[in-house]
Every structure is written in structure tokens, then in C-alpha cells.
Design brief:
The protein has 387 residues and is of the alpha/beta class. Helix content is 35%, strand content 20%. Helix 5 runs parallel beside helix 6 (150-162). Bound molecules: nicotinamide-adenine-dinucleotide.
């Protein structure tokens, strides 16, 4: 017979007495119970992780996290109880046991064993959820964007600076084996001086089952929610923030579809970086399957690099040159979460996708979106100077 669901302390759900007893026994087992301390861990230490937001992305990250050695997922929280329960089932299927919560503050307050949290809640909640988790001293892997306004982004970055825990942001493409290897090649001068980046993100429409993606007040619109990944990579490749943005965008196909839609379905943008380096980026949702897809090209004085391909080509020769790509069989998400766990273990306070880079990389699409809405050239100074 299935265990009877009962409500434990307010905000924790779904534990029968027998489950609680089992959990207590587990807690008493040697090596399983440990205080949440934020000093460096030993190589073999188990890191106890909780998830906040177990929808589409959270579920995917959870499955990925469960593959990383030395991790126990001990808590799962979603304001929609059945999603938290579904996440707990995933943990159970992997041989673990996670407590089920609908209030993450309660979870953090009561489940002291938690070392680290993965946040995958909707964009409009990021500021409050991130700051609350950082303030109680947990390590935090937080989904992008940092927040939706300049002021809120700065508040999250400030909380991360003061936090006891490590803070890493879900710009997982920085950890993608091919992109990462190519970026190392670029930064070592492999393509010479970076002159220009050209990006394309063409695909089908946003997930219709998730309404907040279509509301610009909740997701910041498609550049802040989606274009942000490629813009983060280009900003990283160039090594500084843009100075000016000029752009045009709107809704050409999915007008009021789904009903009430306030996000665009296409835009084109040019960012000017220092020394006349330009980023040219095109993003839309009416790409036939496999037609253009994603391109992330970085052009330099000696050659050009193709980030997702892990390859480059000298400027005066034909033919792509494949780069040596360590961990080529691993996904970006696996590598990003594994890096987070390693950062927690080694107390590395400067992750590759840290608060400062995430702040810059969230302000870039905020600036770009403003250029579209206000139909004018927007400068970094006016955006970054705010708040
Ligand atoms: N890095 C990436 O490639 C990538 C890909 C997809 C989504 N994301 C990001 O992941 C986040 C989640 O996106 P999604 O597609 O999973 O959306 P979703 O709506 O499917 O999932 C969000 C979940 O968070 C829950 N939630 C909302 N407020 C909460 C709170 N206060 N406490 C606990 N749970 C709460 C919701 O009930 C929902 O189940 C977004 O920030 C999105 O931008 C990142």
C-alpha cells in the first residue's frame, strides 16, 4: 500500500510516519548527518543539495545532478506540491530520499543538513529567492538571469559578495566542453585579436505550456530570458562590456499568440564593444526545424572560431580545424553542475559563471531590450549607471 501523505511542519509535505522514521534512521546513520558548514570540504565529502523550483528546468537539472558523484539530493521544493513530489520520486528512483517542501524558506530553516541549493524558479522570482537563499549562508546555483532590472541585479550581486556560500549562475554554456575549449583557444590568442562576433538563435516558439515565458513583465522578454546565453558567451570572448546597443524587434508571426503574449518573436541587434568590436545577433522563433538553428561565431585577426563546433579556421585557409576538447562526451549542464559541486568542495569563490560575470551578462540584454523598446541607441553608461 502506498504510504499515506501527511502534512509535516507547515511548508513540508508528503511524509508518512513510516517515511519519517526511515528518514530519522538515515539521519542517525554514521556519515549521513553533518552540520552545514561552509569551509572547504574533503575530496570525498558528500554534498547535500536541495532544489527550489522543480518544473521544466529544475527537473532536468535534478536528473543531471543525480549523476554527479558525491552528491545527495536531500530536499525538493516547489510551490506546486505535485511537482515537488514528482522530483522526490526522481530522487527515489535514483536510490536516494528527499524531503518534500512547498515553502523554501521553511525548508532552509528546518532542514539544516542542506549545504547547497539549486534555484530553478521563474525569472521574476529570482531576486527574492536568490537573496533569501544567500542570506541563510547556503551555496547557491541560480538559474539565469540574475534578475530582471538593473537595481535588482545589483542587489543579487551585492548579496552574493557578502554571502558565506559560493554563488554560481546557470550560464552553463561556459562549461560546455566544445565552447569552453574554443574559448580557451580564443583567450590564448589563437584567432588573434577579436574583431567581431556573429550569433544566431533561430528556433521554434517558446514552451506554450509555461505561461510566464510569454509575459515580458515575468521573463524580461526574449533577449533577457533566452538571447542572454549567446550574449554571455560573446561578452566573455571579448572580455569587456558593450558601449552601445542599436536594435529592432517585435512580433511578426505570433501576434497575441498565445493570447495576451507581450514578448517579441524576433529581433536583430548590434552591440558595439570597445575598440570597435561588434556583436551582431539575430534571434527569432519561426525557424523551420533544422533550417538555421544556433550559430556562435567569433572572428579574429588571424582566424575565426565556431564555439559549438569546438573548431576554428585560419583567416587565409580553407577547412575547419578541430580543437582538442576534454570531456567531449559530457553535456554543458553536467559540467556546470559538476563545477559547482567542486567549487563547493574546494571553497572556490570565483566560479567561471560567478555573480560579477552574471551581473554584466544580464545588464547586456537589459540594455539591448531597452534599445528595442525605446527605438534608440542605448549606452552602457546610462544602464549600468542606474541604481
Ligand atoms: N540555463 C538554461 O538553459 C535554462 C533553460 C530553461 C530554463 N531556465 C531557467 O530556469 C528557470 C525555470 O524555468 P522553467 O522552464 O523550469 O519554468 P517552470 O515554470 O517550468 O518551472 C519553475 C518552477 O518553479 C516553481 N516556483 C515558482 N516560485 C517558486 C518558489 N517561490 N518556490 C519554489 N518553487 C517555485 C513553479 O511552481 C515551477 O514549478 C527560469 O529562470 C528559466 O529562465 C534556464
Amino acid at each position: 500500500m502506498a504510504p499515506q501523505a501527511v502534512r509535516g511542519s507547515k511548508g513540508e509535505v508528503g511524509m508518512s510516519d513510516s517515511e519519517m522514521t526511515r528518514r530519522n534512521l538515515l539521519k542517525l546513520s554514521p556519515g549521513l548527518a553533518a552540520p552545514a558548514v561552509l569551509h572547504s570540504r574533503q575530496a570525498g565529502d558528500v554534498i547535500r543539495v536541495a532544489f527550489v523550483g522543480t518544473g521544466n528546468r529544475g527537473g532536468y537539472l535534478l536528473r543531471t545532478m543525480l549523476k554527479i558523484p558525491g552528491v545527495q539530493v536531500v530536499g525538493v521544493c516547489d510551490i506546486v506540491e505535485e511537482r515537488a513530489r514528482a522530483a522526490a520520486k526522481i530522487v527515489e528512483e535514483a536510490g536516494g530520499r528527499a524531503r518534500v517542501w512547498t515553502d523554501f524558506r521553511k525548508m532552509l530553516d528546518e532542514q539544516k543538513e542542506i549545504d547547497a541549493v539549486v534555484q530553478a524558479t521563474p525569472d521574476y522570482t529570482h531576486k527574492d529567492v536568490n537573496i533569501a537563499i544567500l542570506e541563510v549562508g547556503k551555496h547557491l546555483y541560480a538559474e539565469k538571469p540574475l534578475a530582471l532590472t538593473v537595481e535588482d541585479c545589483r542587489m543579487v550581486a551585492a548579496a552574493a559578495r557578502q554571502a558565506k556560500g559560493i554563488f554560481q549562475v546557470g550560464f552553463q554554456l561556459r562549461h560546455d566542453p566544445r565552447r569552453n575549449a574554443t574559448m580557451k583557444f580564443i583567450h590564448s590568442g589563437g584567432i588573434g585579436r577579436v574583431l567581431m562576433c556573429h550569433g544566431i538563435r533561430h528556433g521554434g516558439d517558446l514552451p506554450r505550456a509555461i505561461p510566464w515565458y510569454f509575459d515580458r513583465t515575468k521573463c524580461g522578454d526574449i533577449m533577457i530570458d533566452q538571447g542572454i546565453h549567446i550574449l554571455d558567451l560573446f561578452t566573455w570572448a571579448i572580455g569587456s562590456h558593450p558601449l552601445r546597443a542599436m536594435a529592432s524587434g517585435g512580433t511578426n508571426l505570433f501576434i497575441n499568440e498565445p493570447p495576451g503574449r507581450t514578448v517579441m518573436d524576433n529581433y536583430s541587434i548590434i552591440f558595439e564593444y570597445p575598440q570597435g568590436v561588434r556583436v551582431n545577433f539575430s534571434h527569432h522563433y519561426f525557424d523551420p526545424p533544422g533550417f538555421t538553428g544556433i550559430r556562435e561565431l567569433v572572428f579574429g585577426s588571424e582566424g575565426a572560431a565556431d564555439l559549438p563546433a569546438g573548431a576554428w579556421q585560419p583567416r587565409t585557409q580553407k577547412g575547419l580545424v578541430k580543437l582538442d576538447v576534454p570531456d567531449a562526451d559530457k553535456t554543458a549542464d553536467y559540467m556546470s553542475l559538476a563545477a559547482f559541486i567542486e567549487n563547493v568542495r574546494t571553497n572556490n569563490r570565483k566560479p567561471l559563471n560567478d555573480a560579477e560575470s552574471a551581473l554584466r551578462s544580464t545588464l547586456v540584454p537589459i540594455m539591448g531590450t531597452r534599445a528595442i523598446y525605446e527605438r534608440r541607441i542605448v549606452t552602457w553608461e546610462e544602464v549600468a549607471g542606474e541604481a
